[in-house]
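User: Some background: our group keeps a shared notebook of sequences we're curious about, and every so often someone picks one and asks for a predicted structure to add to the entry. Today it's my turn. The entry only has the sequence so far, pasted here. Could you supply the structure so I can complete it?
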Amino acid sequence: MHSPQRNPLEGVRRFLSSAEFASVLTTVIFGVLLCSYLIPRLMGAPAYTTMVTALVICALLSAGCRRREISWGEQIPITLVVFVLWCCISIAWASRPSATWSSLLYQVAVLILGLYIACFRDHIQIIRSLGNALRTVLIVSLALEILSGVLLDLPIVFLRITGNITSGGPVQGIFGSRNTLAFITVIAVITTVIEWRTKSIQPGLAVFSLAVAASLLIFSQSAIQTGVIAGVFLMLLAILIIRRRSSDERSRWQFGLFAFIVVFAVIAWLMRNTIVSQLRVTNELNVRLTLWQSVLDTARQNPLEGWGWVGAWPSGVQPYFAINFDIGQKHQSALSTFFDAYLQVGMVGLVLFLAVLVLAFIRATLVASSKRSSVFIWPVLIITALAITGLAQSDLLVGSGWLLLVVTVALTSQNMSWRSRLRPLPASEQDGSLRL
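Assistant: Of course. Here's the predicted structure to add to the notebook entry:
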């Protein structure tokens, strides 16, 4: 006979382990992280911290109730964990450990949330939750821009919305930066197209979502995301071409794609001075070049270990204060994920971060080009967008960019984990696709 005192606890356990709870929690996680600029300015930084903490607690409780459903050893990406561990170790030589501690706690919190999503939700469930969150934040962004620029003709100062939509932009929505807004719209376009292809949403809603995202992308006037869109489109085209090959030819086409990307990257690096000189006409690039040179000069003082992980640059902390003072501007990042990684966690951290991206990209490409379902295209397109964006923005290291990176890296690790090959698989689960 069961004790009646245990019934409430059993009900709580069933609630936390239910698919409905995981679905709502996933959508809320994406929504809160996408609003990482809006929420602190509406309710203060402590409110945002409280929200993230509550989400982490909910995720941990839910994961604890469902711990028998997954194999932790096979589903947690080792490269990602090693990178975060190196960031944690960097507190030993940080100039201000207090700033490092707060940044590390935030980074680990988002890591936990991303791993929870990837471990307990499948591809299409993640895409649908992200799509719902993206539609909400982009509609709010467009509404506030119209309110500021058309209805009130006044800036919304605390959100840095200047009301430039009537003059064609640039606009930044609720993200504080036009480049971040453009980055989010590109993610929204990719996600909505996959939702449409998998019939997860009605065609009318898909068209509306694409129209909102495309409008904000145009009004953002972000030259950076133009290159991202081109890269994503070419990657999609390559995946579709490889998918049409026979199983015997597919491996050669996959290796051919990787070889082409490597050769292209090497040529672009060797011709970097020529490319920069051709693009130097834009003031935005000049700002970045000046900042990057100062970051490189500073990073070379601690080339292996870096200056200690801080994520977004804190005010008044060295060497970030000195960099801003040197160039006469105020930045909260190096405006490049890779420059920021080199500055904060040194060459060791940069190599680890590159390993995370490269392995995830290879795995995602192999899976996307071998499996028929459109949902498997989503991770490789997101990783492509993240990697190209990382060249000129630091969004991959904090907030929603870091969350998307964790989710996609964890998904690709699950799809092609070498650790799963350490145990025998049933014949029904084996296939002839190329393995990493």
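Suggested note for the entry: Residues 337-370 form the longest helix (34 residues). The CA atoms of residues 39 and 126 lie 23 Å apart.
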